[in-house]
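Sample pair:
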Amino acid sequence: MTRSILYHLFSSLVIYLPIIQSQRQLCDLYQSTTISKSSSFKSWNCTKKGYPLEPICFNSIYSNWKGISCNNNTIVEINLFTNNKEIHGTIPSSIGDITTLTSINFAHNSFYGIIPSTISKLTALTDFIIYVNSFEGTIPSSLCDMISLTNLNYHMNSLTGYIPTCINKLTNLVIFNIDYNKITGTIPLVIGQLQKLEILIVSTNKLSGLIPSELCNVKTLKRFDVDFNNIYCYDSCLDNVTFEKISISNMEPCMPSPLPTIIPYIIPTNIPTNIPTIIPYIMPTNISTNIPYIISTNISTNIPTNIPTSKPTNISTNISTNISTNIPTGNPTNIPTSNPTNIPTSNPTNIPTGNPTNIPTGNPTNIPTSNPTNIPTDNPTNIPTDNPTNIPTGNPTNIPTGNPTNIPTDNPTNIPTYNPTNIPTDNSTYISTNIPTNISTNSSSINLRKNTKTTQLSLTSIIIISIFSSLCFLLIIIIIIYYGKIQMNNHKILFV
């Protein structure tokens, strides 16, 4: 009995120990993240040394751990998808040792850090989905070794760098989604070699350049989204491609580039540089020394015999004797034989060679540098600040309001209508003693009327004089007030 138990235990160790050893990488993922604190993955459990407490895969295809799928007691899928970003942490590099993996889904979590390059060991991986996380760094070029990939979804992370130019090695790629990242550079031309590509989403990045015409060769492409980049145009061949969905808004077809106006001149590089400067002269060695010497034998022998032997006698002796005798016999004496001596041979010495010394070099000293000190800085103290208090504010009360009642209404009747006749015409002291005797007895009434009229005129004059005086007084007060305001304004201006 004991031997049977020991046998079964030994058999279990032989069978499960390699499996547990090979599944240790999941414990690395367990320890580098917060899976242990997640309510959705309580079934995950590892020892402190990083080993699973029990085999992860049992009965060949089932697993005790949520999100893990097995096949033939090997892990083929890790699915940690959540809706509320429960898991935080990084991807350990040891994940590349689970070479049996065919699918990884870490979507909708809070993973950060870089994508480990060891991921390239997963050559059987078909789905690598890590969208809506916080991964940083670049897309590793080792990704191109994962030749079985069909779905590559890096949507909404913080990835930078370029799209790997080796992406044409992923010949089985169907979905390529890297939108909402910080990818720069251009769309590589080799992407047109992905003949199984159906979905290409590269929008909301920092891509530049133009959309390559090689994409027109991808006949399987159904969706193409490139909005919100720095791409300014697309090849016109895309207008002839039928897409289920294409997003190339705010773009126009690229115009064909003009021919270059300057043809580059390429200097050949294989020109020898050791050209001899002295060309040697090679004396020919095959020159024949047998030069024939031929003496001419056809010399003419016809020598003339009629050579004259005497001098001619008919030589003319008529030599002209009218030769001019005024021919100068010597050289002229007035020809100057030397240069003139009054030509100056040097520059004048009285030309000033320096700057004048009497130019003032400084500013004038009599310019006042400060403001005058006799400007009054305070207000005058003798300006009246209040209005006069003795200005009458009402009309005078002693002005009569009615007409006088004692003014006679009729003219006197006994006023004489004739002038006296006995008035002397010269200045004399004669006083007439002829007092008229026909004076009316009512002279007293006449005098009363005269006194009344005089009184009336006096009252009227007083009233007029009073009114005029009041007006003059008011005018004087107004002038004083106006002049005081002008003085105050002038004082304010001076004070300012």
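Confidence is low (pLDDT under 50) at residues 6-15, 291-296, 415-441.
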